[in-house]
Amino acid sequence: MPRGVFITLEGLDGSGKTTQIKKLATWLGKRGLESVMLRQPGGTPTGDRIREILLNSRTSAVAPMTEMALMFSDRAQAIAEIIKPALDAGKVVVCDRFTDSTEAYQGGGRELGTQIVLDMHQLICGGLQPDLTLLLLPSFEASLARARRRNDRIEADTGKDEGRFETEKDAFYRRVWNKYREIAARESDRVVLIEGDLTIDDVHEQIVEAVAERLLVHTQSA
């Protein structure tokens, strides 16, 4: 059986990833493609516990290296429990965040640098890379405002506190945003950059165009 296709969505919280993943799942389903959707951190029982530690605003004094190690612990579990089995079964895996997020947030935002993240990725993930990464990058100001509104809404609707990162100052997010742009330039064969303050439908149109093209290449090379 041919290996499945691994697609990731990246961007600051508030960039619209959750909405676009739902629309992409519907698009894939209409074409008879079996897909698996997950998020990081989280997506497994172990990962959900790690997510609670990492995102709860009551979690304090976490060293940047500890934060990065927890992100990779979550990722290793997701690969073993969900991603690799799904890919081996020929499914399309769509993941909300992967190692690019760690490079952007911990490498850029926490200023740990790129190389240590890439080294950890090679060690923990065996170098597993997405076949396609869709990077949603609205303007910095719009992304930050949306992120803070989103987490207030989630806490009001569900009672879950996932706002620890949103308490960071604008300078932290500027470093994250800039690192994402750096990744897009460096990994242009894999990363499709969708930037600007576009409508939901405009973003979806660009996403399905990129996904359709990558699926066609994958089918031809299988």
In short:
The protein contains 8 helices and 5 strands, in the order βαβααβααβααβα. It has helices at residues 17-30, 45-55, 64-88, 99-109, 114-125, 140-158, 170-186, 200-221, and strands at residues 5-10, 35-39, 92-96, 132-137, 191-195.
Structural description of this entry:
By secondary structure, the protein is α/β, with parallel strands linked by helices. It has a single domain, classed as P-loop containing nucleotide triphosphate hydrolases (Rossmann fold), CATH 3.40.50. Helices cover 59% and strands 12% of the residues. The chain has a 5-stranded parallel β-sheet with strand order 2-3-1-4-5, sandwiched between helices. The longest helix is centred in the middle third of the chain and has 25 residues. The chain starts with a strand and ends with a helix. 35% of the residues are buried. The model has no long low-confidence stretch (mean pLDDT 91).
For this entry, give a set of tags:
222 residues; alpha/beta; Rossmann fold; 5-stranded parallel sheet; 5 strands
Instruction: Find the CATH superfamily.
Output: P-loop containing nucleotide triphosphate hydrolases
- Spatial separation of the terminal alpha carbons: 9 Å
Mean pLDDT: 91
Strand content: 5-15%
Main CATH class: Alpha Beta
Radius of gyration: 17 Å
How many runs of DSSP E, i.e. beta strands? 5
The total of helices stands at 8
Structural class: alpha/beta
CATH A-level architecture = 3-Layer(aba) Sandwich
Low-confidence stretches: none
Biggest pleated sheet: 5 strands, parallel
Give the helices and strands as they follow along the chain. Answer: EHEHHEHHEHHEH
